[in-house]
Design goal:
- The structure holds 2 protein chains of 2 kinds.
- In chain A, about 40% of the residues lie in helices and about 15% in strands.
- Chain A has helices at about 1-10, 15-30, 30-40, 45-55, 70-80, 90-100, 140-145, 200, 225-240, 255-270, 280-285, 300-305, 335-350, 350-360, 365-370, 375-380, 410-415, 430-440; strands spanning about 55-60, 80-85, 105-110, 125, 125-130, 165, 175, 180, 185-190, 195, 220-225, 270-275, 295, 320-330, 365, 390-395, 400, 420.
- In chain A, α11 (about 280-285) packs across α12 (about 300-305).
- The termini of chain B are close together.
- In chain B, strands 1-2 form a two-stranded antiparallel sheet.
- Chain B has helices spanning about 20-45, 65-70, 75-105, 110-120, 130-135, 135-140, 145-150, 165-190, 195-205, 210-235, 240-245, 255-260, 265-290, 295-299, and strands spanning about 50-55, 55-60.
- The chains are: A alpha/beta, B mainly alpha.
- Chains A and B meet through α6, β12 and α18 of A and α3 and α12 of B.
Chain lengths: ~450, ~300
């Protein structure tokens, strides 16, 4: 049982909440009221903190993969204040809510690609790098844009480092080099690739080019929408040698035109079976055998496998499509509530929640913390590319993989070390959306 | 019935002119209509003329959106596709709805059987939309019942893929959805035809076909027109069925508005919405020439 293991880990090796609380007190004690009261009454500061925060509620809005009730319940147990989880039904609603009703939200998680919609809008609060407790333990890919061996990751698409730091506190421009203002707290990331039905294909698939192979005409699907659909297509077109991009993550108009023209030709010859918009649809398409090859999200692959259907998710030789999710706070926060929001963000990456999410196949930004909350078998399977020594369970306790299985693509750095493109929203987004419509209409 | 002169007239209030009373009576509805319909519509119209970028709309005049909306091949192909669906669906639903209504009205003798059958038509609507859409896959999918039957009979040796995630699938779903309103409106009009009219035609020696063509059809025309209005507004405004049944591979006017909205491009979405509203209103007004709704209610 993974839950048992977590509790064990939490008690033994894990950075206990008590330890993290002591660490944060110095900052809190600086709060005027707290400090004054502490001096006046001689009470130790944690007691004051506990008294003051018990009526505070932090509203966390996110997607179904992060605002999981179990995580909310655990946060409420360990933090002295309340955390209310609200799940946005889709990205559009999520972004709209943040833009139009920012005061109804305290913290949110979002893909860094969404940041294009928030830059210069004054909605997000810069987080002081020194306020974020796990910054030094965060993987360098997210803090410097480099792999542990010092080589730089690709900058095609919206690489995490492109939106990690605000240049100044006024949160208008990004900085490619570390500053004291974080755009958000690094959370989850992963390397996406093609989901494959090996039972229906019968040979290894190792190139994005296969997405456009006529052999699979009428049996492949794309993710609908310009952010990922176009990135996947670009990976395939480049692999085929049909188009050579300067930066396929930020195409010029001419490159967009060439891409759409190619895609329309493929569509007219019946290459695509369907375009999917959400998790369920992609699972449905794959599980029912309607498609044999499609771009997919890791948990969707897991879901197909949990149904007893074989689904491969190995890397392609051109690399993975990487993505990155960060947690941000809203600019209206101040005083105690702001402190609680930062405390919550620190808690989220303190290990338990990260382990929970890792069991869905995502990576956490502080693997060291997560390790303490996972069994050796789990951490070995999810992060280290080792074969499972016993059955791998999903976060809700359902058997997902049998003992002996190794994660497709291998270890964290085998996968994240080979990113061909990052998820993206391009500068020419307006033009691209217009052209994408012609593709759908063709 | 509502305007029947036999209803007691409400006495005019002391000191208030009848005209003022009428104005007061319509004021609440007018306020709701202005604030919830006209003002938002006006805003949408204004936004369609503004410049935009990444979920932002700038107060600067940008006519490119309208020029593109009114002149591009994309708009033309979207409307052609949408009208194609509309015409095919209407050509199937109207005769089908009329025929079923006729059967229910004149060939079912007992009232309770008729009620039972009308209720049976509604059975597919007991489940929610998404479930109804998903349940087409086991029927029309690559490994679905239809394909299994075709292959079992030796008619095809490869599963037929155009049954699902295609224009065909969209039309099937529309027909399944929109035959019911056509039946309902036709049946409603048929119920208002006095039996004596039919008897008179029978006494004059008319055949069943003549009665249908010369008596029932002209009297049911308003019902068909209202049913048509429902089909027009449903098909023109739909995104749900196109998306699920077409597997997002089919783009229509409604879908393209949704795509713009999902990309936070409000001005083109606004311009397309205004144009769509104009087109739908024109069609509906033309159709209403065939059906005087007030007269229908009075009967």
């Amino acid at each position: 049982m993974p839950h048992k293991d977590c509790t064990k880990g939490h008690g033994a090796a894990g950075p206990s909440p008590a330890a993290s609380a002591t660490k944060g007190i110095s900052r809190r004690a600086l709060l005027k009221t707290g400090a004054a009261a502490a001096v006046a009454t001689g009470f130790p500061a944690p007691m004051i903190w506990a008294q003051n925060i018990k009526d505070i509620t932090i509203t966390h809005i996110g997607q179904s993969y992060s605002t999981i009730p179990e995580i909310g319940a655990r946060a409420n147990e360990e933090l002295g204040f309340r955390v209310e989880m609200q799940t946005a039904p889709d990205q559009t609603t999520h972004i709209n809510r943040l833009l139009t009703q920012p005061n109804s939200v305290d913290v949110t998680d979002m893909p860094n690609t969404n940041l294009k919609y928030f830059q210069g809008r004054g909605v997000l609060m810069p987080v002081k790098t020194s306020d974020y407790k796990w910054f030094d333990k965060t993987i360098p890919l997210l803090t410097t844009g480099k792999y542990p061996d010092g080589t730089s990751a690709t900058m095609e698409g919206m690489a995490p480092i492109k939106t990690q730091y605000w240049a100044t506190q006024d949160a208008k421009d990004y900085s490619l080099t570390p500053t004291e203002w974080l755009v958000g707290v690094p959370m989850y990331y992963n390397a996406d690739t093609l989901g494959v039905r090996p039972d229906l294909i019968g040979r290894p698939v190792d190139s994005w080019a296969e997405l456009l192979n006529p052999e699979f005409a009428g049996k492949v699907a794309l993710q609908d929408g310009t952010a990922t659909g176009i990135a996947d297509s670009a990976m395939a077109l480049q692999a085929l040698g049909e188009i050579d991009y300067a930066d396929k993550g930020n195409m010029t108009r001419a490159e967009i035109d060439a891409t759409i023209k190619k895609l329309i030709d493929y569509k007219k010859s019946g290459q695509f079976r369907s375009f999917w918009t959400n998790f369920d649809q992609s699972v449905q398409l794959m599980a029912s055998g309607e498609v044999v090859l499609q771009s997919m999200w890791s948990p969707a692959v897991t879901e197909v496998r949990t149904r007893g259907i074989d689904c491969k998710y190995n890397g392609m030789k051109e690399g993975y499509r990487g993505w990155y999710i960060m947690m941000t706070a809203m600019s209206h926060l101040d005083g105690l509530k702001r402190d609680c929001a930062i405390e919550y963000m620190n808690w989220v990456n303190s290990g338990w929640a990260g382990a929970f999410i890792s069991r869905q196949g995502f990576y956490n930004s502080v693997p060291e913390n997560v390790k303490a909350f996972m069994s050796e078998n789990e951490y070995g399977y999810w992060y280290e590319g080792k074969p499972a020594t016993e059955d791998i369970l999903n976060p809700f306790g359902k058997v997902m993989e049998k003992a002996g299985i190794t994660r497709d693509g291998g270890s964290l750095w085998d996968r994240m070390g080979n990113i061909g493109i990052w998820n993206t929203v391009m500068d020419e987004d307006r033009y691209l959306t217009r052209q994408w419509q012609s593709f759908l209409a063709a | 019935m509502f305007s029947s002169p036999r209803l007691p007239r409400i006495l005019p209030s002391r000191g208030l002119s009848p005209k003022l009373v009428s104005v007061l009576q319509v004021t609440p509805m007018a306020l709701v209509y202005i604030t919830l319909v006209l003002v938002p519509l006006g805003l949408i119209f204004v936004v369609s003329f503004l410049d935009y970028n990444f979920a932002q709309v700038f107060p600067e005049l940008y006519l490119e959106t309208w020029i593109d909306t009114l002149t591009s091949d994309l708009t033309l192909s979207l409307y052609l596709k949408t009208f194609k669906f509309l015409i095919i669906v209407w050509c199937i639903c109207a005769p089908l709805g009329f025929a079923i209504a006729y059967f229910l009205a004149y060939h079912i003798r007992t009232n309770w059987v008729r009620t039972l059958l009308v209720a049976a038509i509604a059975i597919p609507f007991w489940t929610s939309g998404p479930i109804r859409m998903v349940s087409w896959v086991p029927l029309l999918g690559r490994e679905g019942l239809v394909n299994q039957t075709l292959m079992g009979l030796g008619l095809v040796d490869q599963p037929v893929s155009w049954l699902m995630y295609s224009e065909f699938a969209v039309i099937v779903a529309y027909v399944q959805m929109l035959t019911m309103p056509m039946i309902a409106t036709s049946l409603n009009s048929m119920a208002k035809i006095k039996p004596s009219v039919i008897q008179a035609a029978e006494d004059a020696g008319a055949s069943e076909w003549q009665i249908v063509r010369d008596v029932i059809f002209p009297l049911v025309r308003p019902g068909l027109a209202i049913g048509t209005v429902i089909i027009v507004t449903a098909v023109m405004g739909d995104v749900f069925m196109v998306k699920y049944m077409g597997g997002s591979q089919v783009n229509t006017v409604g879908m393209s508005i949704i795509t713009d909205l999902n990309a936070f491009m409000y001005p083109p979405a606004a311009a397309k919405s205004v144009l769509l509203l104009f087109v739908v209103l024109t069609i509906v007004l033309a159709l209403l020439r065939f059906a005087d709704i007030r007269k229908e209610l009075r009967q």
